[in-house]
Amino acid sequence: MSKKAKLTLGIFLLSIVYMLFFMHPTMWRDESFTMALISHNFGDIIRLDAMDVHPPFYYLALKSFLNVTTFWTDSLFTQVVFARVFSYLVAILTFITLSRTVKNLGVPRSHAIQWIGFFLAPSIMRYSTQIRMYALAALLLALLFNQLQHYDHSHKSGHIVLAVLFASLASYTHYFAAVAAGWMLFLYFIKFQLNRHDTHALLSSIMVFLIMFIPWGVVAYSQVQQVKSTYWIPDVTWGTVSGNFTNLFADVFTENGGSIYAIAFLVLCIYPVIWAYFNMSKQFKIGLTMVISIFILTTLTGIIVSILVKPIYIARYGYPVYAMLIFFVMTIVAQMISRYKARLSNQYSSYLLLTAFTILIGINVGFLATNQFTRYVLPVGNLSQSVQGYQENPNQAIHVNPKQSVNTIVEKIVYIKSINKEVIIKNFDIGHLVGNNNQALFHGVFDNVNVDMYKKQEKGS
Q1: Do residues 191 and 293 lie in contact, with contact meaning Cβ atoms separated by under 8 Å?
Q2: Which chain regions cross the lipid bilayer (predicted)?
Q3: Whole-angstrom distance, CA of residue 163 vs CA of residue 145
Q4: What pTM does this model have?
């Protein structure tokens, strides 16, 4: 079988895995929040999101995508699956962008190990299909990185213009994507200074980047004040600090043996990184150094802000940079295998490394698939029956059992809204959903939860 055929087969099998375990219509609470928010018009999305703790670009982009791809149906089941497809397509574009970037850094071609290793790596499978903003933030950082590399080679101002655009869109997607973009621009400014390049264009781009964020920066300040008063992220401890660096590498093992798994995966990543510094092109090594530095600096920034202001950082906020780091590691592994095929002694060591990666990634995929099946795929039938029951119910207002899990309650609220019915629920703690306990945000987004109706029924009984 040719290499191209192997790559095609790998992509096909990978797509089957994603379709089976990730393109499901069930949602966890943050995804339900996303689908409820984008059910509003564009203006209300921005207004309501100003009360949340995330910028609005992802929500606007997702609503635009669904307006084009699901205009033919009112089924929320279909819309949820297409919302996951949006993240998956964005993840593929991220891979393609990074592939072209490393090609400019001296890596000659793509490789099946890059594809399979990247998409099956810890956390990539989850966040590349979630109905949240992390996959889009990763694409925007990859595009920013790509344009800075192009500018480094050509010094054409058009690349700086695009770099500012992608950096600004990243900052309007997630606050720590903005932090990562800022560090990337700053590090490349230092690089250009050391190389005695003209840095006026990049310095101007950094200023434009900061200025373009001012409109939402005013909103961000208000959001930070809300977070300072109450928020769900736990206080900073040595455990949370280490978790901020390792949880993305542990994925589903975060709460059960995650530290051991993460250490094992990180140790395996160290050898390819060391190998790259001895064997790969100078341009690639500089790019690798940039990505590692941005990942560390972004995480440290989150930890420092959490200590000085209020805990506002968890590991998944670093996913956009983590995705780039994992891509680089898998690219190195692919190059190790390619270069050592003709040298038997080195071939054994590289294939031993590949085997170890395969075992660890296989364990992660197995547990993640089991987790997805039991928590999201298996409940699809029950969800479908519930929604059908709600549709057949002659009442306009549906009572939802408050003793269910928060994920189930919020998911049902969104599905009930999709059939234009209201929800009555007793003693629901919205703090489980909106971390700052914002009543206005909750009732603005989930506008079919009729608290007044419940109170009237209580008085009349």
Answers
A1: no
A2: 7-27, 76-98, 131-148, 160-189, 201-222, 258-278, 290-313, 319-338, 350-369
A3: 8
A4: 0.92
